[in-house]
Amino acid sequence: MSGSQLWAVDVYGRGFSLWAAGGRWRRVADLLLELKRVTGSQHCCWGIGCDHQVYLHVYPSQVPIRHQEKTYENQRWNPVDGYTDTLLPTDRWQWTDEWGLNPQPLHSFVLPSANWEWEGDWYVDDESCGRESSETGGWEYAVDFPATFTKEKKWNSCVRRRRWLRYRRYKALGSWAKVPLDRARPPPEPFTDISCGGWDMSDSPEKHIYLWAVSQQGKLWFRTGIRQQNPEGTCWEPIQVPQEVAQVSAGPKDLLWVVLWDGQLLARTGINKDCPKGSSWELVQPPNQKGAVHVAVGLTVVWAVTKDNKVWFRRGVNSHNPTGSGWISIGGEMLMLSMGPNDQVWGVGSDDRTVYFRHGVTATEVTGRSWVAVSAQLDGSASTNHSSVHVQSDASVFAGEVTTPSQGSVLGCDDTDIPKPRVPKITSDSFISALVSDRSAPAHDPPSVAHPSVPEDNQMKSQESDSSVLSPSSLSDGSETPWSNVDLEEMKGSVPSSTRSSVATYPIELQHNTVVQEELPPWAWVTGGGCDISSSSHVDLFNISGATQLKQSSLTHPQPLPQPHVVLSITEGTYLKLLMCDSVRVTRGCMCWWRDWTPHQWEDVSVTLEQVTGAGAQTGDVLYLYYTHDQEKKYVYAVIKEVTALVPVFRDSLYTMAVYTPERTKQRCPILLATPSQQDFNTWLSLLNESCCASRGLGEHPSKQAMWAVTCKGDVMVHEPSPSLEAPAQYLPCEHMFWRQVPAHLLCVESNSLGVVWGIAHDHTAWVYTGGSRGPSAQGKHAPCSISDVRSVYIYENQRWNPMTGYTDKGLPTDRYMWSDASGLRECTKDNTRPPSPQWTWVSDWAVDFGVPGGTDKEGWQYAADFPVTFHGYKTIKDFVRRRRWARKCKISLTGPWQKVPPIALTDVTVLPCLAQCSLEQVPVWAISEKGDVLCRLGVTTNNPSGNSWLHVGTDQPFKSICIGGGHQVWAIARDGAVFYRGSVSAHNPAGECWYHIPSPPKQTLRQVSVGRTSVYAVDENSNLWYRQGLTPSYPQGSAWELISSNVCKVSVGPLDQVWIIADKVPGYPSESSGTVCHRLGVKPMQPKGLSWDFGIGVSFSTLSLMLNCAVLKKKKKKKPCRLKMHFCF
């Protein structure tokens, strides 16, 4: 039967097998067989003998291997003799194959090798037409041979045929058999290496094994025709290779690598079930300059050994990318490696020639954790050439004396799971002294002192050196024990029990058959292709702590013999920890990928995230997407360190994330990945976020100097600035800025470099970021709390007037949808409108919204001459269309380190933009309530970011925007667009004294203002950006407004007058660039307006709050004029 076996060859050419389910190293039955190489699968094992011939071992099975031979007997009818074997010259032969193309007489069928035997003689297949028939004799009739044959004979049936069958059976099951040379073909060159694989390439029940071999001349050969009913295969075919091959390794699927004589490697491409030999080669550079000497291929992994015996792992290997992407150094020094069916790794140590197993290899931890030695014992029943002693203790035979020794036994009362020490010659004086000292031991000694010749603290050392002393048992009581005769001469052969020489008599108490096991030989080769070990069976199968059982064994306390099993001993010198070496963690899954070329559609892809940790990791984590296009395997990848943002979106009813890179940011075309379930989406988003942060060395929480931004959907994004963000010599382009998401849902956010962060939700609730731990152990104000937000979703009902029926939902063919969004380009009905994302849930029904800008009538309608025209809240004679807005509320609930600030609802908030080294007793925070009142928050500190109370600041009209800048400059905008400056604001007078009116830009209404240290910028209702000129310490209100740019949604000025905006449109990308982060370049004290814009990521940002590291301030201090800076710096 097929099983899970590990095969190995020692340096003497002896082959051994080890069952994974438990057992010992058992030598092959053919003692004359000497092997050099072995390669295994789950059904058979191949090998190369010392005679350079190929050998095959097929595992025993209850189902015999039978091969059917068939041939067809053909006859033609003539009027004289009827049906005879006399055929026309143009007919086929009398005995042919089914199609009549090849002659196949009965005597031409011979056994392919001596490993087969005939089951019986030839017989007629009487059911060739699919139904039983005993009268026709198995004949099939037709008009002519090329025609279709049937069972019924007709008047025009001029030819007939019948099929003859004979079965041959493979008789060499369970033994090593030589594979014969190809018939009628020149024999291939002697082989030096062999490897089998490909049995998992197809999903068909019949597994095909593809065998590859390397000859002495460096040629590569492929064995064809290997299948379950023909395990030996058919013939050898040469494969073209650009250079001489030294070693080959095939994986269970479609991976094949070879090692060249010069140390380089080649990967075979184009291998599939229809073309198992592949199509071309791709060169792969070795891990180091010394070159590779061995390669081992698995399902999706490749391991290699260089000439200095270093072990390497190839990352990024997949059937779509058989060459991989880079090498990772793995600890340990190995002579060779072998892969198991599930990518488990076996190897032979280069120094001690011990078989090792890679412990900890799983589907995610593909590199494992450590090398562990396999210390299974040799089977005592196998014949050996080493000396050993056998002691018989049967009651009817044993009479207190040691008799003739035998080979292959182990000394001990129980079959422990550790390597048994080898017994020295009995003629040694030390052995006699040990027996005498043991005989004179006190009777009350505990059984734990059972091995006086091997001290307890040196037992591990004795085990490693494979040297020991025969240890008699201690006395369990004071009673006399029987005396035994011990032969002091080494037994050279079979000597009669009555023949003795130099006999000494000592008391020995034996309870069981005890033998001394032969020491493990130095191994030369191992193959784990047929040893299937799952990660969950490691604890049961491999007894890692088995070496400690040596201290518990005792000859005087017999125990039941344990079931033998494989032992992995972790001892000094065999346990190689991964301290300075890299490890690879792989996470695989299936997602949908939006193909951004024609035809634009979702494609099912296999996603693999490789995470590399260790001192030697250079490339870092990589995300692979494997897909098939036009029946060709392809892949795309993204280096995680180059990912600039992971933005959740909702598209086509799928949970989608947009993956941005610098190149994709320039193209305004992110990688879109989607999952059908929210659980998978959250898992992948969290995993990718952690990988991105780890690759950049970012902590769990944002720093105090972080830049905060909010997308139009309410997601809060954070960027960690570097000290060189504003430095001209080391300028970081905007497309390279990395943004990560913070759990929250807000409408706007404001912060400063002291770590004070305020935000306002869509329901006008104020929130303060606590920056605490998100773990379950968080306590107090830093504990994560529930965050909720409520927003309204709007749709528009549109109608057109006609003279017959008035306003109806029957519009013109060129009109917008009668139920649409605000633009009218997308149809939005009450039934098909969904919340912004699946995280939102409806909390109300649809209702008419009367709070639309421009006003409404009593039914909520707005009127206009046509749909593109501005709507108003009253009807005139020229209004032919009307609309009204419907609203429905939805709610989202999250968890994050935020604290709610009750009880006043806010529409805008601003925090003093100070530098990190500034020390303030209280941090000024100003806000505007939902009613338009101006408020000043008191008691805000770094330890109490939420403050204590609100101080109302009187105004003559409601306000809509406010900002505080350097030097406590407070600027605000009223709801009618009027601009005001608050005078006499200071740390001692936080509310100031009075408002100063500032003229607005000509014919423009401002909506938002931002104040820096010496600069003031504002945005009007037409999305134009304005700069306030003439600001001086003596006249801080400035003198005039200057237009800087257009298409600006939001502006943010930092504490050093750095300017960042959210652009509505970017030149060159009119429709895909809404909400783009842009940075003003060339801003200097003598040139505060800057020179140009640097366009960054466009993820539909709505607000931006900018802070900066204090490292920039040190460079700015050298600038002039000093008086201006000294006045505004604090």
Automatic annotation (TrEMBL):
The chain crosses the membrane at residues 1093-1113. Belongs to the TECPR1 family. This is Tectonin beta-propeller repeat containing 1b. Residues 465-480 have a biased composition (Low complexity). Residues 64-125, 138-171, 788-849, 860-893 form the Peroxin/Ferlin domain. Keywords: Membrane, Repeat, Transmembrane, Transmembrane helix. GO terms for cellular component: bounding membrane of organelle; cytoplasm. Residues 404-424, 438-501 are annotated as: Disordered. Pfam families: Hyd_WA, Pex24p, Tectonin. It comes from Cyprinus carpio (Common carp). InterPro entries: Beta-propeller_rpt_TECPR, Peroxin/Ferlin, TECPR1-like_DysF, Tectonin_beta-prop.
